[in-house]
């Protein structure tokens, strides 16, 4: 279902991105609607797939996943079968938080979360480099997180 977002829908989405647990009554107040129309709009946004799901955002360090790395991956070849094989493999690894096929220098970029550098090294050696389509992996380790957001910019 395709829907056009009006300013109120966008306002609802901005608020829900900040606080997915906000009550409908409080959401309605914040966006200037009464509760019933607000709830109808939220349900339409959910049914249209604009709101994909609600999640809890965890502090990685407090749950033993304090290291984030970015792995650049090169494939042996760039045909559809290799890409599919790679995609199926990385989807099985919970350590891979995000994976993007890219243009440019490498074929894919992954955001990987593990407990520490040794855990990442084990993951790379035991899993990532053993995917048959992978030619090589180069890893970037960030020194500090300056910004971490899950809110899409809605203007």
Automatic annotation (TrEMBL):
<dbReference type="InterPro" id="IPR011008">
    <property type="entry name" value="Dimeric_a/b-barrel"/>
</dbReference>
<dbReference type="InterPro" id="IPR011991">
    <property type="entry name" value="ArsR-like_HTH"/>
</dbReference>
<keyword id="KW-0238">DNA-binding</keyword>
<keyword id="KW-0804">Transcription</keyword>
<dbReference type="InterPro" id="IPR000485">
    <property type="entry name" value="AsnC-type_HTH_dom"/>
</dbReference>
<dbReference type="Pfam" id="PF13412">
    <property type="entry name" value="HTH_24"/>
</dbReference>
<dbReference type="Pfam" id="PF01037">
    <property type="entry name" value="AsnC_trans_reg"/>
</dbReference>
<dbReference type="InterPro" id="IPR019885">
    <property type="entry name" value="Tscrpt_reg_HTH_AsnC-type_CS"/>
</dbReference>
<dbReference type="GO" id="GO:0006355">
    <property type="term" value="P:regulation of DNA-templated transcription"/>
</dbReference>
<dbReference type="InterPro" id="IPR036388">
    <property type="entry name" value="WH-like_DNA-bd_sf"/>
</dbReference>
<feature type="domain" description="HTH asnC-type">
    <location>
        <begin position="5"/>
        <end position="68"/>
    </location>
</feature>
<dbReference type="InterPro" id="IPR036390">
    <property type="entry name" value="WH_DNA-bd_sf"/>
</dbReference>
<dbReference type="GO" id="GO:0005829">
    <property type="term" value="C:cytosol"/>
</dbReference>
<dbReference type="GO" id="GO:0043200">
    <property type="term" value="P:response to amino acid"/>
</dbReference>
<dbReference type="InterPro" id="IPR019888">
    <property type="entry name" value="Tscrpt_reg_AsnC-like"/>
</dbReference>
<dbReference type="GO" id="GO:0043565">
    <property type="term" value="F:sequence-specific DNA binding"/>
</dbReference>
<keyword id="KW-0805">Transcription regulation</keyword>
<protein>
    <submittedName>
        <fullName>Lrp/AsnC family transcriptional regulator</fullName>
    </submittedName>
</protein>
<dbReference type="InterPro" id="IPR019887">
    <property type="entry name" value="Tscrpt_reg_AsnC/Lrp_C"/>
</dbReference>
């Amino acid at each position: 279902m395709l829907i056009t977002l009006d300013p109120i829908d966008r306002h609802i989405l901005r608020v829900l991105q900040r606080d997915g647990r906000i009550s409908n009554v409080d959401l309605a107040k914040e966006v200037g609607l009464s509760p019933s129309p607000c709830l109808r709009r939220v349900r339409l946004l959910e049914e249209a797939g604009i709101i994909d799901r609600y999640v809890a955002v965890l502090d990685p360090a407090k749950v033993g996943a304090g290291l984030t790395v970015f792995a650049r991956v090169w494939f042996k070849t760039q045909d559809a079968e290799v890409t599919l094989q790679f995609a199926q493999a990385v989807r099985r690894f919970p350590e891979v938080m995000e994976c993007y096929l890219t243009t440019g220098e490498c074929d894919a970029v992954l955001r990987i979360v593990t407990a520490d550098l040794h855990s990442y090294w084990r993951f790379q050696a035991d899993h990532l480099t053993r995917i048959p389509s992978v030619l090589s992996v180069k890893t970037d380790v960030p020194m500090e997180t300056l910004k971490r957001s899950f809110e899409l910019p809605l203007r």
